[in-house]
Structure formats: C-alpha cells, structure tokens
Design brief:
Elements lengths: L1 E5 L3 H9 L5 E3 L2 H7 L3 H11 L4 E4 L5 H12 L5 E6 L2 H12 L4 E6 L2 H9 L4 E4 L1 H6 L4 H15 L4 E4 L5 H9 L4 E4 L1 H8 L2 H17 L4
Parallel strand pairs: 1-2, 1-8, 2-3, 3-4, 4-5, 5-6, 6-7, 7-8
Helix pairs in contact: 1-3, 4-5, 6-8
The structure holds SN-glycerol-3-phosphate.
SN-glycerol-3-phosphate binds next to helix 7.
Length: about 220
C-alpha cells in the first residue's frame, strides 16, 4: 500500500519524505490556496523533492478547458497526475486525456457508481472522499469496500486513493480492504507512527541501560 501526503506545504513534504513514508503527493486548489503560492511554482518544487506521482488539480469546469489545462500540467514532468472532478465535463475530458496517455486522478468521488464510470473512462486513479461522507453521517469506509470490490471483479487498472482521511483508523481499514493508496494529511501521518507503549518501552530500556552502562 502506498502512502501519499495530502498537502502543498513544502516543509511538510520534505520532512515526511525524509521519514521514508512519502510515495506521492496530492494537492487541490484549497491546499494550494492555504499556502498562498503559485500553483506552477509549488508543483515544480514538489517534483524536485518527491520521486512519485504528484496530483495537480484543474481549475477549469468545461471539458475543453480541462483538457488544455491537463496537457499543460502533463508537460511539467512524467510524474504529474492530473486531478479532474467527477463531473460530466470531467468524464468527457478524461476520455480524451486517457487516450493521450495522460494520467488522471478522478476526484470528489462519493458513490460506487461514480467510481465505476471513472474506471470505465480510463482513470489511472480514483479518489473517494471518506471523511466528507462521515461528516454527513454516511459511511466513508463502506464506499471503499464497494469500490475495491467492484474493481476486483472487473480487473480495472484504476488505483484507489483513499482521500479525505481524518484519522489513522481510516488508513488501517483502507489497508484491510486492499485499497492501493491512502493520501494522508501530515497530522494523521504523525499519529500513525505513535504508540504510547513504544515511547514507554524506549524510556524503560534506556533507564535500565543507565544502571549497567559503566560495566560495559
Ligand atoms: O485532497 C483531497 C482530500 O483529501 C481533501 O480532504 O480533508 O478537505 O475533506 P478534506
């Protein structure tokens, strides 16, 4: 299972990349806006840090403009994956881009039917948003179960990126369901590393060692 980091913050991307847990990066217009930077400049900076798929989202809403935008992003690097929303225009654009060999991550997916359409139209990746479903009292992880099951039945090559991750349990349940990737915010990545018994164990090992270190 791959871990992507869901951020456009360069310091965080460098930090967690050094920890060895970043296989790719996903961004969206809100994450770029949060950093207050130029999209092109930031994506090109990320490309220099992470050697893996980097998702960059289109701003256009009509298919022709989405295609133009996607083609431009794809010239930046082979690792660029163009994020396109799960709309009718998005699916029309996907069909064209997939034929051109441009990798597309279909985003804002909230139902198995949407995930099925994205796969049939040639998406390289699909991003179901689990946290936003949980937020409206639906079951985000049930969607992942349905999408992974459907994709297995038909051997779709489309990879499932579990997005809108809110806590470590989302990541573990995704792994249990065989999702290909989770895109994880920095705070959740930190929590995945931590366990109080690990910290307690390190502390007690060192305390015991102190008692005998002069005898070594
Ligand atoms: O990048 C897409 C997705 O992960 C956004 O998550 O937290 O805005 O629902 P969130």
């Amino acid at each position: 299972m791959d871990f992507y980091i869901d951020t456009a913050n360069l310091d965080d991307i460098k930090k967690y990349n050094d920890w060895g847990v970043v296989d790719g990066v996903t961004t969206n217009p809100s994450l770029i806006a949060k950093e207050g930077v130029s999209l092109e400049k930031r994506i090109k900076e990320i490309i220099k840090v992470v050697d893996g798929p980097i998702s960059t989202e289109v701003i256009a809403t009509d298919s022709e403009q989405m295609i133009q935008e996607a083609r431009k992003y794809a010239t930046w690097h082979d690792n660029i994956v163009v994020k396109i929303p799960m709309t009718i225009d998005g699916m029309k654009a996907l069909k064209v881009l997939a034929k051109e060999g441009i990798k597309v991550n279909v985003t804002l997916v909230f139902s198995p039917g949407q995930a099925l359409i994205a796969a049939k139209n040639g998406a390289a990746y699909v991003s179901p948003f689990v946290g936003r479903l949980d937020d409206i009292s639906e079951d985000g992880m049930a969607l992942i179960h349905e999408v992974t099951t459907i994709y297995q039945h038909y051997n779709f090559d489309t990879k499932v990126i579990v997005a809108s991750v809110r806590h470590p349990r989302h990541v573990i349940d995704s792994a249990l369901m065989g999702a290909d990737i989770a895109t994880i915010p920095a705070a959740i990545l930190e929590k995945l590393f931590k366990h109080p018994l690990t910290d307690k164990g390190v502390k007690s090992f060192l305390a015991d060692w102190e008692k005998v270190k002069d005898k070594q």
